[in-house]
Write a structure and sequence with these properties.
Elements (H helix, E strand, L loop, with lengths): L2 H7 L1 E4 H6 L1 H6 L4 E5 L2 E6 L2 H14 L2 H16 L6 H13 L1
Parallel strand pairs: 1-2
Antiparallel strand pairs: 2-3
């Protein structure tokens, strides 16, 4: 599920309701959108989810990594069945012995 989809499906609470039930709302560990007069104003995310999103954004800025991802995708398009990992590892091991 994409982050945008997660936010669209997130629980929505008015600010007054959230303040009244803050303890229960925070314990749910689910994304929440806080509304002010029906308009989305703030998002509350689980800490680990936020850290994961930040790491992903940093990875997306790594051009070398993104180039490797692109090459991998192109390779999969050419050979959708992929490669046999056991055969590849055996081949690597045999080269190391020589």
């Amino acid at each position: 599920m994409t982050t945008a989809t997660t936010l669209l499906k997130a629980s929505r609470f008015g600010i007054k309701d959230f303040k009244t039930h803050i303890s229960a709302r925070i314990k749910s560990h689910k994304p929440m959108v806080l509304l002010d007069r029906g308009e989305p104003k703030k998002v509350i995310l689980d800490y680990n989810d936020l850290v994961e999103m930040i790491e992903l954004m940093e990875e997306l800025q790594d051009r070398e990594l993104m180039n490797l991802v692109r090459l991998g995708r192109e390779s999969l398009k050419r050979n959708p069945s992929g490669i046999d990992a056991e055969k590849s590892l055996a081949k690597l091991r045999s080269h190391k012995k020589n």
